[in-house]
Amino acid sequence: MNDDVDEPLRLPPRPVPPPRPSLPVAAAIVPVVGAVVLWQLTGSPSALWFAALGPLMAAASFVDAVRSSRRSRRRARGKAATDLAQLAVDLEARHDDERRRAWHATPDVAGYADDPTEVWRVVPGRADVIVVGRGEGRSSVRLDGEAETAEARELRGRARMLAEMPITVPLSAGIAVAGPPVWAAAVVRALVLQVCLAHPPGQVRLIGGLSAPLRGGCGDAAVAGGGLALPHADATRGAAVLIGNGDRPIPADVEVPIVQVAEGAPPPPRCAAVLTLDGAGQARLDHAGQSRRVRVEALSHTQAARLAVVLSERAATLGQRVDGAVALAELPVAPSEGVASLASTVGISAGEPVALDLVGDGPHAVVIGVTGSGKSELLTSWIVGMCRGRSPHEVSFLLVDFKGGRTFDALAPLPHVTGVLTDLDETRAVRAVDSLRAEIRHRERVLEAHGARDIAEAVGKLSRLVIVVDEYAALVAARPELHELFADIAARGRALGMHLILASQRAAGAFRDGVLANAPLRIALRVTDAADSRTVIGDDDAVRLPGGPAARGTALVRRAADNGPQTVRIARCGDDTLAALLAESVGVESARRPWLPPLPDHVSVPEVRGRAFESDRAGSGILLGIADEPEHQRQRVIALTEGSAGFAVVGGAGSGRTTVLRAVAAQAARSMWVPADLERAWDMLLGLDTVPPGTVVLVDDADAIAGRFPADYAAAWTATLERTAREARGRGIALVVSAPRVAGPVGRVIDLLPARAILPLPSRADHVAAGGESADFIADSRPGRGRWGRTLVQFATPGETVAAQTAGTPTSRTESAAPETAGRRRRPSIEAEDERTAPRWHPTARGLSGLILPAGARSDAVAAALEADGFAVRALEDAAASAPRSPDSGPGERGGAVTDGTVLIGSPEAWLAQWRLLAEARARGEVVIDAGCAAEYRALTGRRDLPPYAAPGARRAWAVLPDTDVRRVTVPA
Questions:
Q1: Claim to verify: residue 49 and residue 125 sit in the same structural domain
Q2: pLDDT tens-digit series, residues 431-447
Q3: Domain stops at, among 71, 103, 135
Q4: Which domain holds residue 59?
Q5: Is 370 a known ligand-binding residue?
Q6: For a FRET experiment, which of 223, 240, 652, 832 has its CA 20 to 30 Å from that of 424?
Q7: 293 with 152: CB under 8 angstroms?
Q8: Based on the domain organization, do 225 and 111 belong to the same domain?
Q9: What tens digit of pLDDT does each residue of 760-808 get?
Q10: Is 553 annotated as a binding residue?
């Protein structure tokens, strides 16, 4: 055998035939010529006998040359045959060596049995294929040279192919074995054992129940490992190998299907290679479009059982066995080293306890796993493990469950747990997480005060705080700004003693680089996306973890110093373990909570004042409510300080806008409430120029008031309100305006106010339109809870004492009560109410009084009322008919028809037609125009300014006297 197996063999060259011998003509002629010359010289006839020697010598030479040529040809043919025979020997040796190397590279079950050292040995190419039998394969031996003879051609043909070679197919191709049930079962059994001999548990795993081929029968098998204790049946990692029957579909997560099908039945679509058994030890292999004959290997159940025992013993020796379920109570408690360590025993691997240390392995951890993989059990066991043997002054926990479950409810009574937060109360959960910003600053101040660089140098001053978030992706999806907070904790947590355990179903989109870079402790339970597995543990193994209930809690743990992940079976924390821990914690002082309680649902002005004095922050001004600042770990009182220009209150229906204004009015030394009554609202707002400094002007539902005014009055009213807002600080007054939205003319007024309280609004879009931040919107918020800037505030209510005050008659403190309190008073009469805004009109004694009313029955009623009061009343048409036609006649020349003190009643059209009488009334008397004739007011009076607002349909009218301001009056009826 040649040492260099890659050196090609060469066919012996074809023997070169010797040249044909030529006739020695010259040798025959020369003696004749010599004899003739000698005869002539001597004259002796005897000399001619020498001429006969030439031909004789030539013939002899020719015969000798022919004999020599024949010998040479025989020697050449002999050497060629010898060389070809040696080449055949060398070729066979090469083939034997090639066959040996091929079976060494990819042995079958017999090969592993002959050389047990090859079991689970890493050989290039072995892990990717499976040997399905023996057959003829193409040889790699090269045979150079020309095949000139039949023997050489036959030898070249033998060199191309090699018998008894291992016939392999890709491991992932899938194999279907069809044939007699018992024989097919034995073949499947051999294939499965070959896979298990080539790959250790963890590289491959047998999933589902081991089918009948491993039990020696036909039909379905029992539970996993039935009859064959293969360690691969308990593996939790690696390629999934399914041994089954062809009458059932192959699961999608199976990577290596090996199935037995009935004779004549079609193979499953996932099986690219089909072995059809058609004789003792013989089969036809159909794969990749080719068909070939192979001799298959079969194993009895007894042989397979012996090999299974060998593999189980080898797995136990090499630590390849996979652990079963274990309870946390069965594991030893990790030794406590104060704040220097957070070691916790969480499970077992190869029968040995596995401890995780957030201090040594962390400082932070990332956990991924799909629903049902055991993620919640892992978190619970880990937390309880860290609590065992440690006091709340050594470690405390903030637990956040953002998947709507009850994962941490059982842990809430532990004194180590500062709070359990869920997405069922998203606002409270996010508030507590926001408080961690203040916790960071608190810990920095403590370390600075004690001259310590990290928590290890401030023993007894700080406990380690572990923040555990289940469904971290859902938390940051709801509040994207928390990405920065967790990245900050991840960066500074080691020194401050703050640790993160962030769990999510998927890694994609959840964990950013700032968190992952500082979380070297990675744990992956089963996932369905290989990208998530690679992100967390660096390979795809988490996808191959089994998903059945029996494998729940199987995880891959990778620390910063690990070359690869370690398979761990997470221990389950039973109720008895938790009960024992709670019993040990009775009477133990609870851990310091890093946040204050939530804002109260209701707070009154006296309660706010009490909090202000308790915190020594009473200050001055009008108290508005309590502000929640979790990022500073405080709740402070907010107030409208003296000298403030005021603020706006924006909120939806029932949000508490009016209550906020009532609380302000109750505390103001001097306040003026602009009422909802349009006439009074008009008069009061136009009188703001005379309001003394220190007055608080309150306008509730300003947009509703403006919307009820006619267009010209609304523009004037809002312009006055806008001017007041602009001048409020300079005049020393404060303006408080409420509205359900920031839009239109009132929106310009709100924009001029320096502060804004945003109460609950129907939607996030409304909240943003009101000037708030989208992230600050809280759906279904309670009344009185809103934002002051971006700070959450519970605004105060007036309280019982204040309510009693505002319900009574307005005092110097409150010049006009709020509508809802005013409504509680007994209204004396409509006339008394009217007298306050529009006094009853009485005609003057001098000049002509013109009363302009809309045409209709009401004119007669008004005329009758005036006549009953003793006034002379005439219809305008009658007076015009009896008046003299001379334009120069005076009032005394009317024949007594129209005298001073007479009241002429007519419609706007009639008065405009009698322009002389209208001019006389405007110049010498009084013109009274009903509010229903507002459209003709300017034409009738000749004035361009707006009269005081008068409500139409309420007997309101405008009284116009020469050179005086227009008055609002009430027409008698």
A1: no
A2: 777 788 888 989 999 99
A3: 103
A4: 9-103
A5: yes
A6: 652
A7: no
A8: yes
A9: 999 999 999 999 998 888 888 889 999 999 999 999 999 754 443 333 3
A10: no
